[in-house]
Amino acid sequence: MPIVSDRGCLHGRGWLRHGRRCARPLCGDRLESPAGARFAVRAGVLADKGVISVKGWMRGVRRIASPNFDARPAGERISLVVIHAISLPPERFGGPGVIQLFTNALDPDEDPYYATIGHLRVSAHFFIRRDGELIQFVSTEARAWHAGVSCWRGRERCNDFSIGIELEGCDSRPFETVQYDVLAALLKRLRRRYRGLEIAGHSDIAPGRKTDPGPCFDWGRAGIVAPLQQGCFDKSQSDQ
Ligand SMILES: [Zn+2]
Predict the structure, then answer these.
(1) Rounded to whole angstroms, how far apart are CA atoms 151 and 202?
(2) Is residue 176 annotated as part of the catalytic site, yes or no?
């Protein structure tokens, strides 16, 4: 059973006091870590109360402003969410690297890899850490710089019409349950705000160039139907 879902194991403070497993009869939802507990509860709160303001900022979420954004094209409808995975340094979790990257503050002396990416000016709207912490860097109303050269359903420059969500992760290690919980809650709020949103992976809109969110990402656990098409070469197009 999941730790928490929209209606899931949110049996109040008693659940947390009882430690690693929900004490409510017939529930048995498992708690994977103390940090997970903190943010699993928060995922439920997020799903119910994480309203996105008219200016595109989610209430109650840690905000770290990135300078790496600009305006979406006039009249552009937000119609896509792009799921990414990132870890800095690669395959290491918990450090400040991703925040530093999105705020142009990477220290090239900290890790040799940083010297190769320190010039990049990139961002995402949201970042979900391994412990479930959710950070917002860019207003959803603005254009974050996460997709790069990309194409979805015949449309290029996916940054124009998408929202980027980064999960702290890599191609070789499973994501944490609490990350799926927070992602599901975040998607629920985004779908409420932006009707008709589709969801794709970075690898779907930039096939051959990007692999994230990678083979360890379980679409079903985030409550998402995995995209059936890739980039600009979806089935309907290739049949023509
Ligand atoms: Zn990506």
Answers:
(1) 10
(2) no
